Structure formats: structure tokens, C-alpha cells
Amino acid sequence: MGRAPCCDKATVKKGPWSPEEDAMLKNYIEEHGTGGNWIALPHKIGLKRCGKSCRLRWLNYLRPNIKHGDFTPEEDSIICSLYISIGSRWSIIAAQLPGRTDNDVKNYWNTKLKKRLLGRRKDRGGGGHHHRSQSTADDLPAGGDGGMNDGGGGERSLSASAMERIQLCMQLQELQNPLAIHHNPLLSQWPSKATTDHNHSNSNSNSSMNNVTVAEHGMSSSIRDNHHLSGQQLESAAAMASPSSGGENSNVVVAIEAELQELLYGGGGSQGRASGGGAIIDGGGGGDGAPQGDVDWWSYDQGKQSPVTCWDFTPETSSIFQDYTTVYDI
DNA sequence: AACCAGAACAACCGCGGTTCG
DNA sequence: CCGAACCGCGGTTGTTCTGGT
Q: Where is the Myb-like domain (predicted)?
């Protein structure tokens, strides 16, 4: 049974918004608010638009204090680190970037950062570093080996973003220590475990056994319950990020933090950056391991523009990030 | 100057989760 | 408890812009 369409597609206008439509929507919302019902909103205003379209337009474009373009190195760093940690949870990532929307972040990642990070590997490949695990986006095949696919086609349950994160993680780790990836039990187990967890990802009350894996890594229940991270995502985030999951993985995180700088800004680039070398994930030993030299961008945020003051940093997201900071021992 | 390819951005689509009657 | 309506999110597509030839 299909879902009923949210609006009559024959009568609603599609495509780019005109300045007049923008003005109508903006004026109405500023005067009356959304009224809690986006579907009814266009009818009240007299717009021939789908309610979803109105909502999107408001959130991504018309809302006050929206920033467009010119992502700073700090923002780059936040996006990359969070993406590696939690995957394509653009709304959560965007919540850490004042004035940025999830759509903006997503576009920025897809068009720039991803290419900068993943694309760079190919350059390296030609430049003398030749590694065992070919982990570029193109190279990771359905039947790929290197321990990532555990016999029975584990890749079936891995999303593209998950694969991407594996690639990034492997790539970064290899840069740090070409041998380490093959000795990381969590990474080598991950596909099969993720498959198991993924099958139960929606049952947060019954899949206690799968949650054990999460609990072992210290993931809080509120993240799991409130934000529906799949077992796969939790697993990857926890495996890569949790300091409690073992020193080896902490090393991975440290490697990621360090190598992000190299990947993003080139060799020695971190030297010249005022900040951005910090870590969302302070894997370096339980909170003491603040990155020396560079300003960690969490401190930067807290000192100058705390997430709490973000324009869309709601109490809910605040609590979520409380969880993250707890989990990741930030 | 014209054309083309790739990049960047805006918007749409469909799905899962939540709420409410 | 169930189903419909709604919300929010992530993925994808379409359009516009920009740089190169």
C-alpha cells in the first residue's frame, strides 16, 4: 500500500521559487509562524506550493541567519570528523555549524569535501604509496576483499556512506600506519557485526543483544532512541570513536584527526591553520589528550560561539550532543 | 564568441518515524 | 490498537554557473 501523496501534484507549482513567493512565505511565517502545519500553510498564504516545498524553502533559504558558501577550515574539520564518526547525519552535523543547513552541508560534502578526501587517494596512489587495500571509492567493489566482506556478501547491508567511511578510515589509518588496519579487530569484524545489528536496527526494545555491542562501546541510549542511529552506524561510530573501545581504536581516531588535516589541507597545512587540528573525538587518553598546538574546534566553539548559541541548537540537539560529548569523551 | 564539461546549488522525491484521532 | 496525516531526513535529480578549449 503506497503512501498517499502529501499534495495534489497536478495543482502545485514546482521548480525554483520566485522572489514574490519567497516574500509571501517569509512575511507570513514571520507574522504568524508556521502554525505547526506545513501542509496547510501554502493554502493559508495562497501559494500554489506543496507544504513540504514551503518547509524546505523556509529552512534552507528564507530562515534568518542562514549562511551560504565559504565554509571555513574549522567547518570543514567539523564536517569531516563528524561524518567519519556518525555518517551522513547531516542535520546533526549542521547543528554544530551555526547558520548552516543540513542541505548546505550535504551539498558541500558531496561536491567538495568528499572529492578532496577520497579523490586525493588516487593522487597518492600514483605518487609512490602503493597499498594492499585499494580503498578508493571506485575500487571498493561489491566483492571486495581485504577482509571487509565477510563471506556472505556483507556489503549488502552497508550503505554507500558507510562504505565511504570505511574507506576514509582505512585510508587515514593506512597513512598513519600501513599495517594497523589488518590488526584492528573491530574493523575486520565490522561488516558481519554491522549486518547483524542492521537487521535489528529498528527494534530498540527487543534487540538487547545487539545493544550490548553498543553498550560495550559506551553509546548512550538517548542517542540510540532519539535519533535512530542504526546499529551499523552506532557500531562504526563506537568502533572508531570510543576511547573505551581500546587503545588501538583510539589510535585510529588520533590518526584520523591528524590525517584529516593532511588530506584537507595538504602536508604541513595544519601548521598554518589557526585552528581545526582539534578533535571531536579525543581518543588520546580520556580527555587529557587535547591536541597540542592547534586550537581544538570544540574549545573554539565553546569559547566564542558555543553550540548552545547556535540558531538552531535546540534543547533536544543539545542533549544529543551531550551524549556525544560523553560518549566520545570530548 | 561559441561551445562544452564539470562544479555548485536548489529543489524534489521517497521513506521512516511520530503524532493524533 | 490501528491507520492516516504529518514531519523530518537523506538521497537524488535538475538547473544554473563557471572555467576551459
A: 9-62, 63-113
